[in-house]
Write a structure and sequence with these properties.
It is a single chain. By secondary structure, this protein is of the alpha/beta class. Helices cover 41% and strands 16% of the residues. Strands 1-2-3-4-5-6-7-8 form an eight-stranded parallel beta barrel, surrounded by four helices.
């Protein structure tokens, strides 16, 4: 089946509010493509100005993180209802930087996936392996374990709306990129796992992104693969080249 392509920018900890608005204005005409879902996942402080800046365009806004409780004594955190009320539609969950730097484990990530769906947000669920796991040839088992844990108790109807981002950790911000065939192998593996955990119809609907140093030069080849439905773009999402990826 034809799945709608989704290109999401993960701005990470970049851009002040005024810089964020300037980038939205710079990219506005470059990312026009009604056949693609375009998402800017931005720092919490940028959400309100970015939502305002993209009004009337084809761009959707996502957040980079949230906590699983609606409100309370959780200093420094931000909740799903806050994001929803601000105009956020997507939420990145389980990015390797959240896992590795901030110690998020699959139990918490699973709670976040379920909370996101309950709150009307669409999760962009990240998975991926380190260079050591890739070299040890245990990356397939690792990714299957991540996805199985992260989707525990998530329904088939929810998974159909889910976006999964495969991000080999060894190819994030390193300039290294998985070959198109390596990326397709794992994205196909993820789709086969979804079919095994749920059914083929669910696997056919879930959208799977590649998220490891996709750029204007390699996007077309990566996106030509049958199981790669888009990209989760880091550094290149902060440049005019992001428009070339959207339109690849």
């Amino acid at each position: 089946m034809a799945r709608r392509r989704i290109i999401a920018g993960n701005w990470k900890m970049n851009k002040t509010p005024s810089e964020a608005v300037a980038l939205c204005n710079e990219l506005k005409d470059l990312v026009k493509n009604d056949a693609v879902d375009v998402v800017y996942c931005v720092p919490a402080i940028d959400i309100v100005p970015v939502v305002e800046a993209v009004k009337g365009t084809n761009v959707h806004v996502g957040a980079e993180n949230f906590y699983i409780v609606d409100n309370g004594a959780f200093t420094g955190e931000i909740s799903a209802p806050m994001l929803k009320d601000a105009g956020v539609e997507y939420i990145i969950i389980g990015h390797s930087e959240r896992r590795d730097i901030f110690g998020e484990n699959d139990i918490l990530i699973n709670q976040k996936v379920k909370k996101a769906f309950a709150s009307g947000l669409t999760p962009i669920l990240c998975c991926g392996e380190s260079l050591a796991l890739r070299k040890a040839d245990t990356y397939k088992e690792w990714i299957e374990r991540q996805i199985t844990w992260d989707l525990d108790g998530v329904t088939a109807d929810q998974v159909k709306k889910l976006v999964i981002a495969y991000e080999p950790i060894w190819a994030i911000g390193t300039g290294e990129t998985a070959t198109a065939d390596q990326a397709e192998e794992v994205c196909g593996l993820i789709r086969s796992l979804i079919a095994k955990l749920y059914d083929q119809a669910t696997a056919d609907e879930v959208r799977i992104q590649y998220g490891g140093s996709m750029n204007a030069g390699n996007a077309a080849e990566l996106l030509s693969k049958p199981n790669i439905d888009g990209g989760l773009i880091g550094g290149a999402s902060l440049k005019p080249d992001f428009g070339k990826i959207v339109n690849a």
